Amino acid sequence: MDLLIQDVPTLVFVVVAVPAVLAIYIVGTEYLVRLLPDKQRPRVRPWFWVGPALLFVTAFLVLPALGTVVTSLQDHDGNFIGLVNYQRQLGDFPTGGAWIAIRNNVYWLILYTLFVLFFGLILAVLFDRVRYESIVKSFIFLPMAISSVALAVIWGFMYSYQPADAPQTGTLNFIVVNVFHQAPKTWLSDPTVNNFALIAAAIWGITGFAMVILSAALKGIPGELLEAARVDGAGELTIFRRVIFPLMMPTVVVVGTTLVIFALKAFDVVYVMTAGNFQTDVLANRMYKLLYQSDNPGGASAVAIILLIAVVPVLIFNLRQFRAVEARR
Amino acid sequence: MASVTYDHVVKRYTADVTVVKDFNVEIKDKEFMVLVGPSGCGKSTALRMLAGLEQISEGRILIGDRMVNNVAAKDRDIAMVFQSYALYPHMSVYDNMAFPLQMQHMKKSEIDTRVRNASRILGLDNFLKRKPRALSGGQRQRVALGRAIVRSPKVFLLDEPLSNLDAKLRGQTRVELQKLHRDLQTTFIYVTHDQVEAMTMGDRIAIMNAGILQQVGTPGEIYDHPANLFVAGFIGTPTMNFVPASVSDSTAKASGFEVELPKSLPSGKGTLGFRPEAVTDRVAEGSPQFEMKVDVVERLGSDQFLYGQVGGDQVTARVDPRMAVAPGDRVKLGLDTRSMHFFDAESEQALL
Amino acid sequence: MTAQAVAREEVVRAPAWSPAWISQRLQKVLLHVVVIGLTAAWMVPAIALFTSSFRHFEDINSTGWWTALAPPFKFTVDNYAKVLSSGNLGHSIFNSFMISIPATVIPTTIAAFAAYAFAWMKFPGRNYLFLALVALLAVPLQLTFVPVLKTYVSVGLVPQNWGFVGVWLAHAGYGLPFAVYLLANFFRALPSDLFESAEIDGAGTLTVFFRIVLPLSVPAIASLVIFQFLWVWNDLLVALIYVGGTENVAPVTVTLANLSNSLGQGWHLLTAAAFLSMIIPLVVFISLQRYFVRGILAGSVKG
After folding, report:
1. What homologous superfamily does CATH list for C80-296?
2. pTM: predicted TM-score of the whole model, two decimal places
3. Which letter does DSSP use for residue B246 in this model?
4. Which residues of C touch A165 (CB under 8 A)?
């Protein structure tokens, strides 16, 4: 417990000192800027303001990303070995190296993205029609607040397995046995279902996020437009298909690309629930294992670069969208 | 108190985008000058250059005798009222008005005197503690004025200050602004796209179009002697009648009638202009007359406007409101030749 | 009344007990059933956890959690007592605070200055730098771990010497692109008239920033703070890399993950521990949900 007492002053110090130091920095540089002639000031000042942010981002994101490219070409002792690390990861198609992880990331990419969008859209549209919308939305949204680790525990309990002759305490196996009269499943170790079980847990956690954004987009559609469609004689389903959905499409795309990135980076749920065993590995978890369990920074870096390459198309798409939006400003 | 001079002022954004071209105006001390023109004509840019919010590409702007091209906005001793009022939403009415004075490091007691004085003039005494969002549109507009008044600036700049008010309030505020101008005895420069505001408030009006100053003059001069076709069409509602005509000596011949002009002009084609009130049902002896086929009748109570055709041309007439006319009728109307205008076909400048 | 309004009236109100009226009523009832049913189903996993955390060890492993919802009620807080006393969960929660608070304060302050420059100052390359920042939002953090860790080890910035400083700085670096993006978007949406008016009033850059921009941006800053705090609190990966699983420094996510591995089927303790780890984020989330949602809507891309 002595650690507690010695750390609290540090915390207080940091919370007070960091903003203070930054404020002093900004005020101080402003006085330096004022020493300059009038015309020079607006040219110099912005660099002082963005400086700290650029420094941090360069130190923790840009340079390390470049460093990883280098490491991925080296062996454990720092000798350059060309593409050997990549060869080891990508050599044995379809089950060796990183291929199981890549296959699973593809599962994640497709199922996670589509189901979250589907549920998010359905819930947003349904909830929009009831008066207690904000309450039900809060419930769906609640999993957003908890960590993936806690989520993994929650779903681990949902999936828990007892032998066929014992009473089932896991919710899902109870339903399987008592409603469908099937043998209970080992959801997390049976390779035919375990990936889907993990993805389902992650979907539960993130749907609230998609719902909230889509719901805001739905509310942005002018009511007069829907009234006009009703007056024109369109049924509710037609209105959804021909008016609401097309108008929400840009938002669906934004949420979709975000979800794709989430799916590619999936880690916590896998790490806690299966640790990537039973053919449930994903790239992020494989990288972690290579780094810590196998002490193989070159291999881990190669996996990270593979992950980056997978993200690049989404990234380019995002940037295009962003510039299109900027152009309209 | 100061005059304002625009001396060959140009505003250029890129090599081929020039929004204000060779702008020359002298605004006298204590004058109420209105800059008016259609949107995008450069009037706001002209004002913003004076305020110091835009760089001046060429030429000079003087406040009094001081050239202000390179003087920071805050040091120009001007105050500006924005179209959106630009009130600081997180500050009370009092703080909004005190802010510019605090920036000048004025003494607290002096700030208080000035703010209370301004709020008394504007009738804001009871609202000093409120936030802008708890005020009506008209009250916000007055706070924006108050923020300008407290500084007792040399020049007041107003950028479409009435356009966010409803029609009734706009009428009232027009009157209040004129009264304020009289009381403050300061130079006002007022930008608007509304020709009614320009005509009713300005000591003088400067009309702009496409970055070019068209005419400067008192409301009367501009109404009675528009310098060119644009000014003639921009000022006055309903707009002036324009009829293609050809002139020889002092006779102008349009498709439906002929008119004797007060003086002879060089022969040629052009546009004959006359305001609706020159076309009346009172047919004077010896003046030109014509028959109009009426398309639309607009009764305003105090006025009645007839829109129809004379010969091959569209003409608007202002007639006695009691005259019974229906669309489709043919009516006999007379033309008052005292207020005829004639514009050159090429240059569109007024020849008469 | 406009023609549109009349027509709408017809659509909405059919005469009582007509077939159209009955079908409308049925649709309404069906809607409520679906909405409430879906929400209830969605809550099942959370209710299962919550209920089980109060059940006795023997009950959890012999009967389903739903049996506890019917009499006889046999709840207990033993699980919580045991987790807090035997495990180091209490200390982990403290560690989580130690990590999350500075890891929120540092990037938020840095981002506020940078975002203001991006939003309202002109400098060469501004748009490209901002674009690069948006691009960094999507970069997988995994890409950065090996080099940062190497650097940390070589300069001695490890938990044994510097406590949480390493993880604070890392979280600040990782959180900045989103933080700058969110705040810059908000700052940019402030009306330019305010800035021009302040300029004429004689306010300098510092005055404008501290007296106008910051007070007006409280909602945006609040949502950023909540976002970053929850993100750091709930983070497992970054903590594993830079703090590791050592008992006295592990945040609550790491401890819970360790418990999950070691306890396996010890659900009575695991459920209680999981719920304890969720309390702080749930309280923050429920009390400040409005800001959180606003943050999501303003940013809507976060790695």
Report:
1. MetI-like (1.10.3720.10)
2. 0.83
3. E
4. none
